[in-house]
Amino acid sequence: MAKALVGLVTGAASGLGKATVNRLVNDGYKVIMCDLPTSSGNTIAGSLGSHVKFVPTDVRSETDVKKAVDTCQELYGKVNLIVNCAGISTARKTCNFNKGSPHDLQEFSNILMVNVVGSFNVIRLGAALMGKNEVDENDQRGVIINTSGFAAFDGQMGQAALAASHGALNSMTLTIARDMASQNIRHCTIAPGLFDTPLTDFLPEKVKSFFSDMTPFPKRLGKPEEFANLVVSIVNNPFLNAEVIRLDGALRFS
Ligand SMILES: NC(=O)c1ccc[n+]([C@@H]2O[C@H](COP(=O)([O-])OP(=O)(O)OC[C@H]3O[C@@H](n4cnc5c(N)ncnc54)[C@H](O)[C@@H]3O)[C@@H](O)[C@H]2O)c1
User: For residue 153, is it within any domain?
Assistant: First the structure.
């Protein structure tokens, strides 16, 4: 029997990351769940069985991410798949002219620190372990997937920080794929439209149904399981590399 694959997922205690963990566990993976110590990661991991381990991780921290990767090596000896879903959002205009207040600079840089620097931190440290894998039947050592978002393409008012972070994730997809190619590792980025997760819980039902109506087909928000489906599809297609894939029911904002 083939040895179980090992996945490391960030933002694993909620939304898209949590759905990815559930899917990987169902597919027989061993999983390292990374999320903030304040998250419900430990409880979720406990409910999923002995092949799932929660490692409290702030993706911005070199120490935390090293510990997560080291734990992966100690427990499972390898990592085959890394999925970065840890991310934060904000809605703030570049300058609020009515109040005379510019966008808080710390808030802007925190979005970039978590979404971009955090994802890169996980990739650079995780890749060092992934690169040691034996090649599989497709001559491949592993797959790394980032999560950006629709704001990279048609960011709305108040999304300067989010658009900058998602755009950066999209832009670094090709270059990271090229950097990883010598070790037979693939890298893709998923750019979700609007998904029904705790991140979008703050939206009033009226606004959610407005966005659902705007979506050509299917007329609804995405389901986190559909994101997890795409993760698995990317893994299962050995010729897919350096691609930014929109997953949004054809939703486009003007
Ligand atoms: N839900 C959507 O509609 C949507 C749309 C486009 C893009 N995205 C992107 O997808 C990603 C996941 O979104 P989601 O909907 O699952 O959000 P979510 O809020 O449900 O989950 C995000 C998780 O990331 C964790 N996290 C936040 N900061 C962290 C840090 N510094 N270190 C480690 N973990 C941290 C949170 O604790 C949380 O568990 C985000 O980057 C988001 O911008 C989501």
Answer: yes
Model pTM above 0.70? yes
Domain assignment of residue 238, given as a range: 6-247
H helices of 85-159, where?
105-112, 119-130, 151-154
What would the pLDDT profile of 171-183 be if each residue is shown by its tens digit?
999 999 999 999 9
* 10 in Cβ contact with 41 (< 8 Å): no
Has residue 224 been placed in a domain? yes
The number of the ligand 1 atom at minimal distance from the alpha carbon of 114 is 31
Q: What is the DSSP letter of 164?
A: H
Residues lining ligand 1, Cβ inside 6 A:
10-11, 13-17, 35-36, 39, 57-60, 85-89, 114-115, 118, 147, 149-150, 192, 194-195, 197-200
Q: Are the C-beta atoms of residues 232 and 178 closer than 8 Å to each other?
A: no
What does the pLDDT look like over 142-153, one tens digit per residue?
999 999 999 999
Provide the token pair at 23. 């899917």
